[in-house]
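Batch queue: ligand-bound targets. Current item pairs a single chain with flavin-adenine dinucleotide. No template structures supplied; prediction is de novo from sequence plus SMILES. Inputs echoed for audit trail.
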Amino acid sequence: MNVTADVVVVGSGIIGLCCATSIAVSGKSVLVVGEHRKGEASTAAAGMLAPSVEKSEGPAHNFAIAARDIYPAYLEELADQIGIRVPLNRLGVLQVALTERGVRGLQKNASPTSHWIDRKELAHLEPTLGHAIGAVMNPEDGSVDNVILTLALNSLADSQSRVTRHAGAVTKISAANSRVRAILADGSAIESGQIVLAPGAWGAEIDGASALKAITPVRGQLVSYPGIGLRHVTYGPRGYLVPRGTASTIGGSTMEKAGFNAVTTPEGLARVQSAAEEIAPALAITPPASSWAGLRPVTPDMLPILGRDVDRPEIIYACGHSRNGILLAVLTGKVIAQLMSGAPVEHDLSQFRPDRF
Ligand SMILES: Cc1cc2nc3c(=O)[nH]c(=O)nc-3n(C[C@H](O)[C@H](O)[C@H](O)COP(=O)(O)OP(=O)(O)OC[C@H]3O[C@@H](n4cnc5c(N)ncnc54)[C@H](O)[C@@H]3O)c2cc1C
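Prediction returned. C-alpha cells below.
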C-alpha cells in the first residue's frame, strides 16, 4: 500500500484526534493511523482539569491554564457541530485537609488563585466531606468526561471530509527530501509531507524519531463507585475523587512502573480504595462497581513534547502529556495546527522543546 496525505497523524487517542481535527480545519488532508491497545490513556483517565493542583512552572503553567479555559467554548462548538454534549464540571477543585499538619502544608503550597474554606463551609458545600478540617478551593478547575469527549472527537473526525483513517501500527519513521515515510507493522508504507506523532505511552517503540525515546509508560489504577452526592473534584493526601455527574465517583490513582502491563492488581486497588475512603468515609461501605488501569505517556519532567524535530522538521511531536493529557489536549491540537500552517504560535512552547532530553 502506498497511501498519501498532506499530513499523517500517528495515534488516535485524544491527542491524535485533537491534532487531526484541528489540522483538517486549517485545510490540509489528514490520515490518522492508529491501532487500539489495552491501557490507552484517553479513555482510562479520570478527566481532571486541574492546573492549579497539578502545577507546573513558568510558561508551561500559563499554557495549562489556557488549556483549561479553552474547554467551555470548545465543547459548545463541538455540541453544535456533532450534537454530542460532553459533560464539563467547572465548580472548582477541592484539596481537603484531614489534620492540622495537612492544613499547614496545603496553605503553604496553595495556588495564588485559590482560597481557604473552613470546616463549616466545606460541610455545607459537600456534606460527604464533613469530617475534614477545611479545604483549599481552586476555582475554575474541574473535570471533563474524557470517555464521552473521546467518543465526540471520533465522531468529529468521522464527520470531516479531510480526515481519513487507517487501522495499523507504525513501527518506523524515515524522512528525506521533504517527505516522510511511516512504515507499518505489515510492511506497508504511508507517505506524507509532514507527520504528527501522538502514540501515547508506546512512543519509544517507534524507530526513527529520537524524542519519542524519552517517553515511558506509567500505570495508573482507578476504581468507580456509585455516586455519593459529591459534586466537586476532591484531592486528599494520597489520592483524588472525581464525580461523574450524579451516577458515579471515580477514585484514583497509582503511579507505577509496570511496563506495558495495563492490568489492575489487588495491592494497587487496595491503595486506591484506602485513599478514596480517607477523603470520603462513606466509600468504606460502598463497594466499587468497577476498576481499570491505564498507561500514562510520561516524560522525565512530566511536561509534553510539542514541536518540530530539530533535524527533520517534517516530523512534529505531540506526545508525552504525562498526567495532564486530557487537560492539554484541545490546546495541543490548536497549537500543532498553528505550527503546521506557518502562523505564529500564540503560546510559549519553549519548555516543551523536543530536543530537551
Ligand atoms: C489512570 C490515569 C489517570 C489520568 N488522569 C488524568 C486526568 O485526570 N487529567 C488529565 O489531564 N490527564 C489524565 N491522565 C493522562 C491522560 O490520560 C494522558 O496524558 C492522555 O490521555 C494521553 O493521550 P494520548 O492520545 O497521547 O495517548 P493514548 O490515549 O494512550 O492514545 C495513544 C494511541 O496511539 C496508539 N498507538 C500507540 N502506538 C502506536 C503505533 N506505533 N502505531 C499506531 N498507533 C499507535 C495507541 O494504541 C492509542 O490508541 C490520566 C492517565 C491515566 C492512565
